[in-house]
Amino acid sequence: MKTSILTSASLSLLYLFSFVQSIENDHLQSLLSDPKFKPNTLGNVIPGRYIIEFDQSFHGSSLDFVNDIESDIVKSYPTINSRIKMSIAHDYDSDPSIFRGISISLQQLEDQSQFNKRDENDMHIQALENTLLRKILQQNRVKHIYPVVEIQRPKVENLITHNIKAYDFDDRNNVTPAIPQLLLDENGPSLPFSHTMTQVDKVVSDLKLKGKGVVVGIIDSGIDYRHPAFGGGFGPGFQVRYGYDLVGSRFNSRNPYSRRQSETPLDDCLDGNGHGTHVAGIIAANDKFFNFTGVAPEVTLGAWRVFGCDGTTSNDLVIKALISAHEAGCDVINLSLGGPSNWAEDPTALIANRISEKGSIVIAAAGNDGAKGAFYISSPGSGLSNIAVASIDNVYNLQQSAVTEEGSEYPYLLSSTTKTFPAGQLVNYINEESNADACFGTRPDNDLRGKIALVQRGKCTFDEKADIVRKNGGAGIVVYDNQDETIFKAEALTIKIPMASVTLMAGKELKRLINTNTRYKDGLHIEFRTALTPHKVSSGNRMSRFSSVGPLYDMTMKPDFAGPGGFIFSTLPISNGGYGMLSGTSMAAPYIAGAYALYIQAHGREKSANYLKEHFQNYAKPALQGDDIDTPIRQGAGLIQLFDTINQPIHVSPGHISFNDTVNYKAQNLTICNPGNDTVTFKIMHNPSLAVAPFNTRTQGFAPLQPPHYAPDNVQAVLNISESFITIGPGQTKKVRFEVAKVLGIARAEVYPMYGGYIKFSPVNSTTAKSIHVPYIGISGSLAKLPIFDVKFPRFMVINGTKLFEHKLQDGTISTGFIIDRSNRSSSFVTTMFRLLTGSAMIKTEVLDQNLNQIGMFTYEEYLTRNTLEDLDFIFAQRWNGTMIPNGIENLGDSVSLKPGVYHLRWKGLKLMSDPKNPDSWETRVSPPVLIRN
């Protein structure tokens, strides 16, 4: 089996990074064998911070719990109480069926001001913390403990336009309108362009729905509610009525003392990206001056700020905000944040799931990790009752236009070093296509003196191309892409002439025009206009390349459906100009949140989260890839069609089908319910989609392809359907059975192709009923046979200070072993490097004696996602210090240090869709010998 190849220098850096991370997380390792302790792999663990979930039988207060623990510690371990203080960071005093508990901070009393600079290597302090946590875990009042982890600031993609200066502050700090450089034709497309894609325009015009009476919560970086699109204020009487700032502008998630809470969730960051304000505008902007509206411009908003002006937040804060939004009465909660998980069991996803089931439906971004391959959906969207939203590109974006003398327009972007670009005569540097255009050693085919050179991207740097053009007398340079249809921003450092970039298509058209028209033998006049105008997006109505790819590891279909997320125009803070364009599933999720608000206004709050998800899936429109239907593991049910979703009564359940893998395959039934007044006959059709090849074993083994590739066109299921037509009268419910007869094209495909498609119910005798689509997915092969560990992983890491010895094994061979020397701090542990090709519901580290008999357990970790080929995610690490929980012992307090001698570790990964009680369900590796000496 092959895997990717990294340079030795890269590996050295990766090992160093993982080693540092392992030190940071080392104080958790001896806790991991307690079933109440739930390790969290979604983000970096924050030292000294834990979330404690109370058992439902505990009815006391959080303060009672802390006081009891501290009293117990004083009696049993007086030295600990003098060194470490346990304080409450957050009190989750909510409905027990959602979450009751606390987030705690363990502080060193010697120097609280230096908390976030604590010595990560202080084994004594770590041991004291472990003892305190063991005492907590022994409490019957405690259900679970979760480490507090960082959640990264939401990423946005394709920030390709300048912010639009629509508003500013005057001398008295009042918000005043500016005159934006924005040109919209009265007969052309209107902002935000996306409402025609989703039928939102029809909902507003025909149904007169704008979200009035519905409350939508936003958990993000705050809102600049001073913006006229939100009424200019906060609280009763304003659109942004509810919310709180949990962090302050200078929040550092590693330092609990950096929090500066505020009664208002204002985003007033001068250098921030305005993420929360952009999200809010997509949902609810109602700007009468510029005539710009979001999906549901009359909803009431709540905003809970969990990000400062920069940096990360933490999962305990997101949980606090989720509970606060639910208790404030939000009907819908938007979470355009999270991180890769691909499991439904992450604590944030679990709590969001409970909140969805209680009536505050959580809409979350599926993630912007489409380039990292299949099986990579973000939490909390991975929660089963939560909605994971994929992104589809908008049909138009706003760009500055380069206009030729014959009237053709091409979008352009200025380079990182260019402020303005004067008009001039455009000529080809080389008349033929060449990615060596304007590289060192080339000569121009045309006279460049005083002119603008058209060159192709590639072969050499932008700085080199610009320098060559300048040395040949050129006054400017236009670079066109060599492989992509999307526009790019040229990052240059030292160029001394103006530079702009255009698309591949634009460059080829300009080059052909100059080459073939004698009028332009001395150059084609071109002007670079600064006003923003609408331009068609070549990938419009198709899946955004950045949108994360499913399914979950249990073959649950995720994402659920899609919203417009690529090239989305919306509000920004006043300090950022008031408006701008961002891309991401962060933009698609609030679009769906606004759509849910309109549905709730139309039909009330009686329907369950699961019913609403199914109904939105029923009437979504599958997106195409070329002339073929794109796969459901990228788009779920497809792009929402809101007018049909609101108006159509017929409902199909479930809203999607998973045929699982080959071993766990089951035939499926769909239930069709008609609560309407008309009898409808449907023709039942099968529309297969493109299949996905998640692996290419010939090139990189079972390391998932980044991004995943489409399998050959003929990889598709043949379905047996119990009915070809079905007639369903008012009040009737009927079932249709579906089974996979066979999957075509498997012989030609790479291993584990993921097939899919849509079962279409097409009305044949009705002018009002609309087609219903039910997506399905399946995978050919047994997921239980997918390898968990990469080749030569897990393994011990050799670093400075590592001590080795030679050891004779039972078969007489000599093995090189590792030494844990307790007398030497630098070598008092061994470090294991892991690289997971496939996520696992459980990774165990067992302790064996020198005869390979299991004598205890060191750790187990649950619901790990896989590694990627990214530099900082290539591996992760764990340290063993020669301790274990003996066999038959579940009490964490009985962890013991091993006596001097020779031992082994046995690493075990639970395979997908496997029974942990079956020994064959585990992939196993045994370590080299480890000699422990005092």
Task: Briefly say what this structure is.
With 934 residues, the chain is an alpha+beta fold. It is 18% helix and 31% strand. The strands form 13 sheets. Strands 43, 44, 46, 47, 49, 50, 51, 52 and 53 form a 9-stranded mixed beta sheet that branches.
Query: CATH class of the largest domain, please?
Result: Alpha Beta
Corresponding CATH superfamily of the largest domain: Peptidase S8/S53 domain
Please give the CATH architecture of the largest domain. 3-Layer(aba) Sandwich
Helix count, DSSP H or I runs of 4 or more residues = 16
User: What proportion of the residues form beta strands (DSSP E)?
Assistant: 25-35%
Low-confidence stretches: 1-30, 111-122
Determine the CATH topology of the largest domain. Rossmann fold
User: What is the number of independent domains?
Assistant: 5
Protein name: Minor extracellular protease vpr
Family: Belongs to the peptidase S8 family.
GO molecular function: serine-type endopeptidase activity
InterPro entries: C5a/SBT2-like_Fn3, PA_dom_sf, PA_domain, Peptidase_S8/S53_dom, Peptidase_S8/S53_dom_sf, Peptidase_S8_Asp-AS, Peptidase_S8_His-AS, Peptidase_S8_Ser-AS
Keywords:
9-stranded mixed β-sheet; 934 residues; Rossmann fold; alpha+beta; 16 helices; Alpha-Beta Plaits; 31% strand; 7-stranded parallel β-sheet; hydrolase; Minor extracellular protease vpr; Glucose Oxidase, domain 1
Describe the structure.
The active site is at 220 (charge relay system), 275 (charge relay system), 586 (charge relay system). This is Minor extracellular protease vpr. This protein is α+β, with helices and mostly antiparallel strands. It has 5 domains: 32-151, 2-Layer Sandwich (Alpha-Beta Plaits), CATH 3.30.70; 164-178 and 215-395 and 539-624, Rossmann fold; 399-536, 3-Layer(bba) Sandwich (Glucose Oxidase, domain 1), CATH 3.50.30; 648-783, Immunoglobulin-like (Sandwich), CATH 2.60.40; 788-933, Immunoglobulin-like (Sandwich), CATH 2.60.40. Helices cover 18% and strands 31% of the residues. It is built from 16 helices and 53 strands. The strands form 13 sheets. Strands 43, 44, 46, 47, 49, 50, 51, 52 and 53 form a 9-stranded mixed beta sheet that branches. The protein has a 7-stranded parallel beta sheet with strand order 9-12-8-14-16-18-26, with helices on both faces. A hairpin with a 6-residue loop joins strand 27 (568-571) and strand 28 (578-582). The longest helix has 19 residues, at 585-603. The radius of gyration is 30 Å and the shape is globular.
